[in-house]
Amino acid sequence: MKNSLIDAGPIIALFDNTDQHHEKVLSFLKEYHGRLTTTWPVLTEACYMLDFNRNTQLDFIDWIIAGGLDVYNLQHWQIGAVRDWFVKYSDLPADLADCTLLEAAESQNIDSIITLDQDFSVYKLNNGKYLNNLIQ
């Protein structure tokens, strides 16, 4: 089964039916057959952006509990690698969520992502390859 990373943007769009990308993400995920993996900073960002409605936040959390996605837990020893991603992409708006996704891709050998963020077309993994954005 395919395993892909998912960024905060598509998660927010999925749970916010007023988001301009809601239908696109909903349609994509209905057809996607695989596991979704993300990191705690992505979940934090998504939940924060869904703070316009407590029930929407709870629906999001219930989706996670029901197995909607897997949460990759970075270990303490990986924080240095996350810092390295920050340094490498300091000329871009690389944030903690982005850098943890890059580290998760490296450590879990994941080569695809679901993101609305164009920065992932610039971020290169250590093998010189880009993550394949499945939703473009």
UniProtKB/TrEMBL annotation:
Pfam families: PIN (PF01850). The lineage of its organism: Bacteria, Pseudomonadati, Balneolota, Balneolia, Balneolales. Residues 5-122 form the PIN domain. This is Pilus assembly protein. Gene3D superfamilies: 5'-nuclease (3.40.50.1010).
